[in-house]
Amino acid sequence: MTTWLITGASSGLGAALARAVLKQGDTAVITARNPDHLTDITAQYPDTALAVALEVADHNQVVAAVTAATARFGGVDVLVNNAGHGYRAAVEEASVDEVDELFATNFFGPVDLVKEVLPQMRHRRSGTIINVSSIGAPRSNPASGYYTASKAALEGMSDALNREVSPLGIRVIVLEPGALRTDFSGRSLAQSRTVIDDYADTAGKRRKENDTTHGTQQGDPDRAAQVIIDTVRSDSAPFRLLLGSDAIAIVRDELQGRIDEIDAWAHVSATTDFPDQTRP
Questions:
Q1: For this structure, is 45 an active site residue?
Q2: Could you tell me if residue 57 is inside a domain?
Q3: Considering 87, 146, 151, 158, which one is annotated as catalytic?
Q4: Is residue 275 a part of any domain in this protein?
């Protein structure tokens, strides 16, 4: 039986994954800032689900969550760093406190959880760490600079982590979801207090009051949850896993654009090398 620790399990992808994991017979420590929001899940699976209060930016709560998982189920086999939120602001509009909170939630909190579960995973020489990123990590949009920076930081850390722990039998998977039909663009989306009129036609168009995508996203969180479970159970898994046809199209287009730009400027880029002294 596999034990999952899933953050941000009160709604969206986290809730869908928690229900799917438990339905298929695994055990799960499910977390939320307010564990009362998890009672509908724990009531259905009283023997295999444990709800824990967790603000991922609070180190003491991070330690307590992993300790509770170990005490109840013997350890964490799969960590899913799902908790996080969006943030919309032009780069100039954002305040320091808003950005600090964003990175504490989207980057430093997940790093803290990774560091708490790694000792037991290293001891067992097994485990899976799943960090939920975004298609914004490879390509950002106006108003999403800080949000995508937090996810790009998560991916950069995950890339190094994967190379460090894969020889120890531990897998790292980065999820890059497309638009899932969750509260991400609704209740979970924060934005800057400051609004600068000069950005009305760029970042301004993507502020919450102007965003009409909420509730119309094509991605199904239940289907995404099953893909995650199947990937964890498989003998092989990608480092980056795209979720959704929109994710495939967006990331493929971005990466092809980067390749085209590299090729177009390669003759300039190569001129920074030291001259080859062996050439006649």
A1: no
A2: yes
A3: 151
A4: no
Query: In terms of Cα–Cα distance, which of 180, 148, 165, 175 is closest to 237?
Result: 175
**Terminus-to-terminus CA distance in the chain, angstroms?**
67
Q: How many domains does the chain have?
A: 1
CATH code, 9:
3.40.50.720
Average confidence (pLDDT) per 10 residues, the chain, 280 residues: 96 95 98 95 97 98 98 98 96 97 98 98 98 94 96 98 98 93 72 96 90 71 95 96 95 97 97 75
The yes-or-no answer on residue 10 being catalytic is no
In this structure, what token pair is assigned to residue 243? 């979720």
Active-site hit among 45, 87, 146, 147 = 147
- Phi-psi domain of 237 (left: phi exceeds 0; alpha: psi -120 through 50; beta: other): beta
Coil, helix or strand for 177? strand
274 inside domain: no
Q: What is the pLDDT of residue 279?
A: 55
Give domain status of residue 191, yes or no: yes
Catalytic status, residue 199: no
- Residue-wise pLDDT for 88-108, tens only, equals 999 999 999 999 999 999 999
Range of the domain at 99: 3-269
Catalytic residue among 10, 133, 140, 185: 133
pLDDT in tens, 183-205: 666 677 899 999 999 999 999 99
